Protein backbone atom coordinates (compact mmCIF):
# COMPACT_ATOMS: atom_id res chain seq x y z
CA UNK A 1 0.00 0.00 0.00
CA UNK A 2 2.82 2.45 0.70
CA UNK A 3 5.25 2.85 -2.13
CA UNK A 4 7.23 6.06 -1.85
CA UNK A 5 9.95 4.93 -4.22
CA UNK A 6 7.63 4.68 -7.22
CA UNK A 7 5.13 7.31 -6.08
CA UNK A 8 2.36 4.71 -6.51
CA UNK A 9 -0.92 5.66 -4.80
CA UNK A 10 -1.52 4.40 -1.28
CA UNK A 11 -5.01 3.00 -1.94
CA UNK A 12 -5.70 -0.09 -3.99
CA UNK A 13 -8.72 -0.06 -6.35
CA UNK A 14 -11.82 -1.21 -4.48
CA UNK A 15 -10.30 -0.22 -1.12
CA UNK A 16 -12.46 -0.27 2.01
CA UNK A 17 -12.37 2.99 4.00
CA UNK A 18 -13.51 3.58 7.55
CA UNK A 19 -14.71 7.21 7.63
CA UNK A 20 -15.26 8.42 11.18
CA UNK A 21 -17.44 11.51 11.58
CA UNK A 22 -18.71 10.80 8.06
CA UNK A 23 -22.23 12.07 8.80
CA UNK A 24 -21.00 15.62 9.48
CA UNK A 25 -20.45 18.49 7.08
CA UNK A 26 -17.05 17.74 5.47
CA UNK A 27 -17.07 13.98 6.14
CA UNK A 28 -20.39 13.52 4.35
CA UNK A 29 -19.11 15.49 1.35
CA UNK A 30 -16.07 13.19 1.24
CA UNK A 31 -18.29 10.07 1.39
CA UNK A 32 -20.79 11.33 -1.20
CA UNK A 33 -18.04 12.37 -3.62
CA UNK A 34 -16.03 9.16 -3.31
CA UNK A 35 -18.99 6.80 -3.67
CA UNK A 36 -20.52 8.80 -6.56
CA UNK A 37 -17.38 8.05 -8.58
CA UNK A 38 -18.52 4.40 -8.75
CA UNK A 39 -14.97 3.07 -8.81
CA UNK A 40 -15.60 0.18 -6.44
CA UNK A 41 -14.45 1.98 -3.26
CA UNK A 42 -16.34 0.74 -0.19
CA UNK A 43 -17.00 2.97 2.81
CA UNK A 44 -18.08 2.28 6.38
CA UNK A 45 -19.11 5.43 8.23
CA UNK A 46 -18.75 5.42 12.02
CA UNK A 47 -20.52 8.42 13.51
CA UNK A 48 -21.92 9.19 16.94
CA UNK A 49 -24.63 11.43 15.45
CA UNK A 50 -24.12 14.29 17.87
CA UNK A 51 -26.25 17.40 17.30
CA UNK A 52 -23.87 18.12 14.37
CA UNK A 53 -24.24 14.84 12.45
CA UNK A 54 -27.20 13.52 10.50
CA UNK A 55 -27.79 10.43 8.39
CA UNK A 56 -29.84 12.68 6.09
CA UNK A 57 -26.50 14.13 4.91
CA UNK A 58 -25.85 10.72 3.33
CA UNK A 59 -29.33 10.17 1.86
CA UNK A 60 -27.94 10.49 -1.70
CA UNK A 61 -25.76 7.45 -1.03
CA UNK A 62 -28.28 5.38 0.92
CA UNK A 63 -30.98 5.76 -1.76
CA UNK A 64 -28.78 4.87 -4.74
CA UNK A 65 -28.70 1.05 -4.98
CA UNK A 66 -25.22 0.83 -6.53
CA UNK A 67 -23.71 3.16 -3.91
CA UNK A 68 -25.75 1.72 -1.04
CA UNK A 69 -24.17 -1.67 -1.81
CA UNK A 70 -20.73 -0.24 -1.10
CA UNK A 71 -21.78 1.73 1.98
CA UNK A 72 -22.50 0.86 5.59
CA UNK A 73 -23.46 3.15 8.48
CA UNK A 74 -22.54 2.36 12.09
CA UNK A 75 -23.68 4.63 14.89
CA UNK A 76 -21.08 4.88 17.64
CA UNK A 77 -18.27 6.72 19.36
CA UNK A 78 -14.65 6.70 18.16
CA UNK A 79 -13.71 6.48 21.83
CA UNK A 80 -15.37 3.03 22.11
CA UNK A 81 -12.41 0.64 21.64
CA UNK A 82 -14.58 -2.49 21.41
CA UNK A 83 -16.60 -1.05 18.58
CA UNK A 84 -13.63 0.53 16.80
CA UNK A 85 -11.33 -2.55 16.80
CA UNK A 86 -13.24 -4.77 14.34
CA UNK A 87 -14.09 -1.79 12.11
CA UNK A 88 -10.42 -0.86 11.76
CA UNK A 89 -9.56 -4.56 11.25
CA UNK A 90 -11.83 -4.59 8.18
CA UNK A 91 -10.45 -1.34 6.70
CA UNK A 92 -7.61 -0.50 4.31
CA UNK A 93 -7.57 3.08 5.60
CA UNK A 94 -9.15 5.22 8.31
CA UNK A 95 -10.08 8.85 7.63
CA UNK A 96 -10.93 10.63 10.87
CA UNK A 97 -13.28 13.60 10.55
CA UNK A 98 -14.90 13.00 13.95
CA UNK A 99 -14.59 15.99 16.27
CA UNK A 100 -16.57 18.55 18.14
CA UNK A 101 -16.01 21.31 15.62
CA UNK A 102 -17.43 24.62 16.88
CA UNK A 103 -15.09 27.06 18.63
CA UNK A 104 -17.90 28.87 20.49
CA UNK A 105 -19.21 25.61 21.96
CA UNK A 106 -15.66 24.72 23.06
CA UNK A 107 -15.56 27.97 25.02
CA UNK A 108 -18.89 27.15 26.70
CA UNK A 109 -18.20 23.41 27.37
CA UNK A 110 -14.69 22.13 26.55
CA UNK A 111 -14.90 18.55 27.85
CA UNK A 112 -16.50 16.80 24.86
CA UNK A 113 -13.78 18.35 22.67
CA UNK A 114 -11.10 16.57 24.64
CA UNK A 115 -12.95 13.25 24.80
CA UNK A 116 -13.31 13.03 21.03
CA UNK A 117 -10.26 15.03 19.96
CA UNK A 118 -7.74 13.37 22.27
CA UNK A 119 -9.06 10.06 23.70
CA UNK A 120 -11.04 9.29 20.55
CA UNK A 121 -7.96 9.80 18.37
CA UNK A 122 -5.92 7.67 20.77
CA UNK A 123 -8.43 4.80 20.47
CA UNK A 124 -8.34 4.96 16.66
CA UNK A 125 -4.54 5.04 16.62
CA UNK A 126 -4.30 2.04 18.96
CA UNK A 127 -6.58 0.04 16.65
CA UNK A 128 -4.45 1.06 13.65
CA UNK A 129 -1.28 0.07 15.53
CA UNK A 130 -2.74 -3.35 16.33
CA UNK A 131 -3.61 -3.93 12.66
CA UNK A 132 -0.12 -2.84 11.57
CA UNK A 133 1.22 -5.50 13.95
CA UNK A 134 -1.04 -8.09 12.32
CA UNK A 135 0.22 -7.03 8.88
CA UNK A 136 3.83 -7.38 10.08
CA UNK A 137 2.98 -10.89 11.31
CA UNK A 138 1.50 -11.77 7.90
CA UNK A 139 -2.05 -11.93 9.28
CA UNK A 140 -3.35 -9.26 6.90
CA UNK A 141 -1.99 -8.00 3.59
CA UNK A 142 -1.09 -4.40 4.44
CA UNK A 143 -1.23 -2.08 7.43
CA UNK A 144 -4.10 0.43 7.40
CA UNK A 145 -3.23 4.00 6.51
CA UNK A 146 -4.58 6.68 8.91
CA UNK A 147 -5.51 10.25 7.95
CA UNK A 148 -6.20 12.81 10.67
CA UNK A 149 -8.32 15.76 9.54
CA UNK A 150 -6.95 18.80 11.36
CA UNK A 151 -7.26 22.55 11.04
CA UNK A 152 -5.44 25.83 10.43
CA UNK A 153 -6.51 26.80 13.96
CA UNK A 154 -3.65 24.76 15.44
CA UNK A 155 -1.25 27.54 14.33
CA UNK A 156 -3.13 30.11 16.41
CA UNK A 157 -3.57 33.64 15.15
CA UNK A 158 -1.19 34.66 12.35
CA UNK A 159 -0.55 38.44 12.28
CA UNK A 160 1.37 38.42 8.96
CA UNK A 161 2.61 35.99 6.37
CA UNK A 162 1.42 32.43 5.90
CA UNK A 163 1.83 29.39 8.17
CA UNK A 164 4.00 26.57 6.85
CA UNK A 165 3.72 23.01 8.08
CA UNK A 166 6.93 23.22 10.13
CA UNK A 167 5.72 26.24 12.15
CA UNK A 168 5.08 25.70 15.83
CA UNK A 169 1.59 24.95 17.10
CA UNK A 170 0.05 27.69 19.22
CA UNK A 171 -3.67 26.90 19.66
CA UNK A 172 -5.73 29.50 21.52
CA UNK A 173 -9.18 27.94 22.06
CA UNK A 174 -10.11 24.63 23.71
CA UNK A 175 -11.24 23.44 20.26
CA UNK A 176 -7.89 24.26 18.66
CA UNK A 177 -5.96 22.81 21.61
CA UNK A 178 -7.85 19.51 21.31
CA UNK A 179 -7.12 19.42 17.56
CA UNK A 180 -3.43 20.13 18.19
CA UNK A 181 -3.30 17.37 20.81
CA UNK A 182 -4.86 14.90 18.37
CA UNK A 183 -2.26 15.78 15.75
CA UNK A 184 0.59 15.41 18.19
CA UNK A 185 -0.61 11.93 19.09
CA UNK A 186 -0.56 11.03 15.40
CA UNK A 187 2.96 12.41 15.11
CA UNK A 188 4.09 10.36 18.10
CA UNK A 189 2.68 7.14 16.59
CA UNK A 190 4.46 7.80 13.28
CA UNK A 191 7.77 8.30 15.06
CA UNK A 192 7.47 5.67 17.80
CA UNK A 193 5.61 2.86 16.06
CA UNK A 194 6.18 3.68 12.38
CA UNK A 195 2.41 4.11 11.89
CA UNK A 196 1.47 4.97 8.30
CA UNK A 197 -0.34 8.24 9.01
CA UNK A 198 -0.81 11.67 7.44
CA UNK A 199 -2.35 14.89 8.74
CA UNK A 200 -4.23 17.59 6.82
CA UNK A 201 -4.75 21.14 8.13
CA UNK A 202 -7.76 22.59 6.34
CA UNK A 203 -8.81 26.22 6.16
CA UNK A 204 -12.26 27.63 7.08
CA UNK A 205 -14.66 25.50 5.10
CA UNK A 206 -18.14 26.42 3.83
CA UNK A 207 -20.79 24.92 1.55
CA UNK A 208 -23.95 22.79 1.47
CA UNK A 209 -24.83 20.75 4.60
CA UNK A 210 -22.79 22.95 7.00
CA UNK A 211 -24.41 23.15 10.42
CA UNK A 212 -26.05 26.58 10.91
CA UNK A 213 -23.97 27.29 14.03
CA UNK A 214 -21.04 28.40 11.80
CA UNK A 215 -20.69 31.95 10.41
CA UNK A 216 -21.75 31.50 6.76
CA UNK A 217 -24.77 29.21 7.22
CA UNK A 218 -25.87 31.06 10.39
CA UNK A 219 -25.88 34.37 8.58
CA UNK A 220 -27.58 33.00 5.43
CA UNK A 221 -30.36 31.30 7.39
CA UNK A 222 -30.88 34.21 9.82
CA UNK A 223 -31.01 36.62 6.87
CA UNK A 224 -33.61 34.46 5.08
CA UNK A 225 -35.72 34.82 8.25
CA UNK A 226 -34.91 38.56 8.61
CA UNK A 227 -33.32 37.79 12.00
CA UNK A 228 -30.29 39.77 13.26
CA UNK A 229 -26.77 38.69 12.18
CA UNK A 230 -24.45 38.77 15.25
CA UNK A 231 -21.04 39.98 14.06
CA UNK A 232 -18.33 39.53 16.71
CA UNK A 233 -16.30 42.62 17.64
CA UNK A 234 -15.22 44.87 14.79
CA UNK A 235 -15.79 42.12 12.18
CA UNK A 236 -12.30 42.67 10.76
CA UNK A 237 -11.06 39.16 11.65
CA UNK A 238 -9.74 37.47 8.53
CA UNK A 239 -10.33 33.89 7.40
CA UNK A 240 -9.22 32.01 4.28
CA UNK A 241 -12.30 30.33 2.77
CA UNK A 242 -12.25 26.81 1.28
CA UNK A 243 -15.24 25.27 -0.53
CA UNK A 244 -16.25 21.93 0.97
CA UNK A 245 -15.81 19.87 -2.22
CA UNK A 246 -12.24 21.18 -2.50
CA UNK A 247 -11.53 20.33 1.13
CA UNK A 248 -12.90 16.79 0.66
CA UNK A 249 -10.99 16.39 -2.63
CA UNK A 250 -7.72 17.54 -1.09
CA UNK A 251 -8.14 15.07 1.78
CA UNK A 252 -8.66 12.26 -0.73
CA UNK A 253 -5.57 13.41 -2.63
CA UNK A 254 -3.43 13.34 0.52
CA UNK A 255 -4.86 9.95 1.49
CA UNK A 256 -3.78 8.57 -1.89
CA UNK A 257 -0.48 10.40 -2.39
CA UNK A 258 0.68 11.92 0.90
CA UNK A 259 3.98 10.77 2.38
CA UNK A 260 3.65 8.91 5.70
CA UNK A 261 4.47 11.07 8.70
CA UNK A 262 3.85 14.33 6.83
CA UNK A 263 1.44 17.21 7.44
CA UNK A 264 -0.25 19.07 4.56
CA UNK A 265 -1.91 22.51 4.72
CA UNK A 266 -5.10 22.87 2.66
CA UNK A 267 -5.56 26.62 2.15
CA UNK A 268 -8.69 28.21 0.74
CA UNK A 269 -9.23 30.46 -2.27
CA UNK A 270 -9.72 33.90 -0.71
CA UNK A 271 -8.64 35.59 2.50
CA UNK A 272 -11.25 38.19 3.51
CA UNK A 273 -12.43 40.00 6.64
CA UNK A 274 -15.72 38.73 8.09
CA UNK A 275 -17.45 42.04 7.28
CA UNK A 276 -16.80 41.49 3.60
CA UNK A 277 -18.09 37.89 3.75
CA UNK A 278 -21.29 39.18 5.35
CA UNK A 279 -21.65 41.92 2.71
CA UNK A 280 -21.36 39.35 -0.08
CA UNK A 281 -23.94 37.06 1.54
CA UNK A 282 -26.43 39.92 1.94
CA UNK A 283 -25.90 40.96 -1.70
CA UNK A 284 -26.51 37.41 -2.90
CA UNK A 285 -29.68 37.21 -0.79
CA UNK A 286 -30.93 40.72 -1.57
CA UNK A 287 -31.11 41.56 2.16
CA UNK A 288 -30.12 44.87 3.87
CA UNK A 289 -26.96 45.53 5.94
CA UNK A 290 -29.25 46.79 8.73
CA UNK A 291 -29.74 43.14 9.78
CA UNK A 292 -26.09 43.05 10.94
CA UNK A 293 -25.49 43.77 14.64
CA UNK A 294 -22.15 44.30 16.37
CA UNK A 295 -22.05 41.99 19.40
CA UNK A 296 -19.54 41.26 22.17
CA UNK A 297 -16.48 39.50 20.75
CA UNK A 298 -15.58 35.81 21.12
CA UNK A 299 -13.01 35.48 23.98
CA UNK A 300 -9.52 34.77 22.62
CA UNK A 301 -10.83 35.41 19.10
CA UNK A 302 -8.10 34.62 16.55
CA UNK A 303 -7.62 37.66 14.34
CA UNK A 304 -6.33 35.95 11.24
CA UNK A 305 -5.55 32.52 9.75
CA UNK A 306 -3.55 32.15 6.55
CA UNK A 307 -1.63 29.11 5.32
CA UNK A 308 0.96 28.47 2.65
CA UNK A 309 -0.20 25.72 0.27
CA UNK A 310 2.97 25.01 -1.70
CA UNK A 311 3.54 21.57 -0.16
CA UNK A 312 0.08 20.39 -1.25
CA UNK A 313 0.51 21.98 -4.68
CA UNK A 314 3.78 20.07 -5.08
CA UNK A 315 1.84 16.88 -4.27
CA UNK A 316 -0.36 17.68 -7.28
CA UNK A 317 -3.55 19.18 -5.77
CA UNK A 318 -5.35 22.35 -7.00
CA UNK A 319 -8.62 23.75 -5.61
CA UNK A 320 -11.32 24.02 -8.25
CA UNK A 321 -13.97 26.36 -6.80
CA UNK A 322 -13.52 30.14 -6.48
CA UNK A 323 -14.99 31.96 -3.48
CA UNK A 324 -17.58 33.71 -5.71
CA UNK A 325 -18.80 30.44 -7.25
CA UNK A 326 -18.74 28.66 -3.88
CA UNK A 327 -20.77 31.38 -2.17
CA UNK A 328 -23.32 31.42 -5.01
CA UNK A 329 -23.70 27.62 -4.79
CA UNK A 330 -23.96 27.75 -0.99
CA UNK A 331 -26.61 30.48 -0.92
CA UNK A 332 -28.63 28.56 -3.56
CA UNK A 333 -28.37 25.35 -1.57
CA UNK A 334 -29.59 26.90 1.69
CA UNK A 335 -32.44 28.63 -0.17
CA UNK A 336 -33.52 25.28 -1.65
CA UNK A 337 -33.02 23.15 1.47
CA UNK A 338 -34.98 24.97 4.11
CA UNK A 339 -36.29 21.76 5.71
CA UNK A 340 -32.70 20.57 6.26
CA UNK A 341 -31.53 23.69 8.08
CA UNK A 342 -34.74 24.20 10.03
CA UNK A 343 -34.25 20.69 11.35
CA UNK A 344 -30.61 21.48 12.26
CA UNK A 345 -31.96 24.54 14.11
CA UNK A 346 -34.11 22.32 16.36
CA UNK A 347 -33.41 20.13 19.40
CA UNK A 348 -30.97 21.96 21.66
CA UNK A 349 -30.68 24.84 19.18
CA UNK A 350 -32.83 27.40 21.00
CA UNK A 351 -31.05 26.77 24.31
CA UNK A 352 -27.63 27.04 22.61
CA UNK A 353 -28.66 30.17 20.74
CA UNK A 354 -29.95 31.86 23.90
CA UNK A 355 -26.75 31.01 25.77
CA UNK A 356 -24.41 32.11 23.00
CA UNK A 357 -26.30 35.12 21.65
CA UNK A 358 -29.02 36.15 24.18
CA UNK A 359 -27.01 38.76 26.11
CA UNK A 360 -24.91 39.60 23.06
CA UNK A 361 -27.95 40.56 20.99
CA UNK A 362 -29.61 42.36 23.90
CA UNK A 363 -26.52 44.58 24.21
CA UNK A 364 -25.74 44.81 20.48
CA UNK A 365 -25.13 48.00 18.52
CA UNK A 366 -25.42 49.07 14.90
CA UNK A 367 -22.74 47.55 12.69
P1 LIG B 1 -19.13 18.62 11.94
O1 LIG B 1 -19.32 19.11 13.34
O2 LIG B 1 -20.10 19.04 10.89
O3 LIG B 1 -19.10 17.03 11.94
C1 LIG B 1 -18.47 16.26 12.91
C2 LIG B 1 -19.05 14.85 12.84
O4 LIG B 1 -18.37 14.04 13.80
C3 LIG B 1 -20.54 14.78 13.18
O5 LIG B 1 -21.20 13.96 12.25
C4 LIG B 1 -20.56 14.17 14.58
O6 LIG B 1 -21.74 13.42 14.84
C5 LIG B 1 -19.32 13.29 14.53
N1 LIG B 1 -18.74 13.01 15.86
C6 LIG B 1 -18.47 13.90 16.85
N2 LIG B 1 -17.94 13.27 17.90
C7 LIG B 1 -17.86 11.94 17.57
C8 LIG B 1 -17.37 10.80 18.23
N3 LIG B 1 -16.88 10.86 19.48
N4 LIG B 1 -17.43 9.62 17.60
C9 LIG B 1 -17.95 9.52 16.34
N5 LIG B 1 -18.42 10.58 15.67
C10 LIG B 1 -18.38 11.78 16.27
O7 LIG B 1 -17.66 19.03 11.58
P2 LIG B 1 -17.00 19.42 10.17
O8 LIG B 1 -17.09 20.88 10.00
O9 LIG B 1 -17.50 18.51 9.12
O10 LIG B 1 -15.47 19.08 10.50
C11 LIG B 1 -14.97 17.79 10.24
C12 LIG B 1 -13.51 17.75 10.65
O11 LIG B 1 -12.80 18.74 9.93
C13 LIG B 1 -13.28 18.06 12.13
O12 LIG B 1 -12.25 17.21 12.59
C14 LIG B 1 -12.83 19.51 12.13
O13 LIG B 1 -11.99 19.78 13.22
C15 LIG B 1 -12.08 19.59 10.81
N6 LIG B 1 -12.04 20.91 10.17
C16 LIG B 1 -13.20 21.63 9.97
C17 LIG B 1 -13.13 22.85 9.31
C18 LIG B 1 -14.36 23.70 9.08
O14 LIG B 1 -14.23 24.86 8.70
N7 LIG B 1 -15.57 23.18 9.29
C19 LIG B 1 -11.90 23.34 8.86
C20 LIG B 1 -10.75 22.57 9.08
C21 LIG B 1 -10.83 21.36 9.72
O1 LIG C 1 -22.04 34.37 15.07
C1 LIG C 1 -20.87 34.48 14.65
N1 LIG C 1 -20.36 35.73 14.46
C2 LIG C 1 -19.09 35.94 14.02
O2 LIG C 1 -18.67 37.10 13.87
C3 LIG C 1 -20.05 33.34 14.35
C4 LIG C 1 -20.57 31.95 14.53
C5 LIG C 1 -18.77 33.58 13.89
N2 LIG C 1 -18.29 34.84 13.75
C6 LIG C 1 -16.89 35.03 13.30
C7 LIG C 1 -15.86 34.27 14.11
C8 LIG C 1 -14.79 33.97 13.09
O3 LIG C 1 -13.91 35.08 12.96
O4 LIG C 1 -16.80 34.49 11.99
C9 LIG C 1 -15.55 33.80 11.78
C10 LIG C 1 -15.84 32.36 11.43
O5 LIG C 1 -16.39 31.76 12.58
P1 LIG C 1 -16.80 30.21 12.61
O6 LIG C 1 -17.73 29.92 11.49
O7 LIG C 1 -17.25 29.90 14.00
O8 LIG C 1 -15.41 29.51 12.25
P2 LIG C 1 -13.97 29.57 12.96
O9 LIG C 1 -14.07 29.91 14.38
O10 LIG C 1 -13.10 30.42 12.09
O11 LIG C 1 -13.57 28.02 12.83
C11 LIG C 1 -13.86 27.27 11.62
O12 LIG C 1 -12.71 27.11 10.84
C12 LIG C 1 -11.71 26.23 11.29
C13 LIG C 1 -14.47 25.91 11.95
O13 LIG C 1 -15.62 26.08 12.78
C14 LIG C 1 -13.48 25.00 12.60
O14 LIG C 1 -14.05 23.71 12.80
C15 LIG C 1 -12.28 24.89 11.70
O15 LIG C 1 -11.29 24.12 12.30
Task: Produce a short descriptive summary.
The chain is α/β, with parallel strands linked by helices and 367 residues long. It is built from 14 helices and 13 strands. The protein has a domain of 236 residues: Rossmann fold, CATH 3.40.50.720.
Walkthrough of the structure:
- The chain has helices at residues 25-36, 59-62, 65-68, 81-89, 103-108, 111-136, 174-193, 215-224, 244-257, 274-285, 310-314, 323-336, 338-344, 349-362; strands at residues 16-20, 42-47, 71-75, 93-96, 145-151, 197-202, 204-206, 229-232, 238-243, 263-266, 270-273, 292-295, 365-366.
- It is of the alpha/beta class and 367 residues long.
- Helix 7 (174-193) links the parallel strand 5 and strand 6.
- Helix 1 crosses helix 9, helix 4 packs across helix 6 (111-136) and helix 6 packs parallel to helix 7.
- The longest helix has 26 residues, at 111-136.
- It is globular.
- The relative contact order is 0.13.
- Residues 1-6 have low confidence and may be disordered.
- Nicotinamide-adenine-dinucleotide is lined by residues 20-21, 23-27, 46-50, 52-53, 77-79, 97-101, 116, 120, 149, 151, 179, 202, 204-205, 211.
Amino acid sequence: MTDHATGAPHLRPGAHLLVTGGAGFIGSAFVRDMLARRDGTRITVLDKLTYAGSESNLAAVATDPEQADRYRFVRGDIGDAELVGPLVAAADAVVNFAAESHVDRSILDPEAFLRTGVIGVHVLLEAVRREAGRAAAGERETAPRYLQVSTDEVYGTVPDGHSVETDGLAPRSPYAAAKAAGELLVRSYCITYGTDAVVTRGANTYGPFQHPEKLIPLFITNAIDDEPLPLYGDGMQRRDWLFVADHAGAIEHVLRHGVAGEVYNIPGELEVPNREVVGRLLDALGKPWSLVRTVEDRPGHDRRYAMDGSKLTALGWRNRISFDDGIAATVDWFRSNEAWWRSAKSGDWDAYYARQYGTRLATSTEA
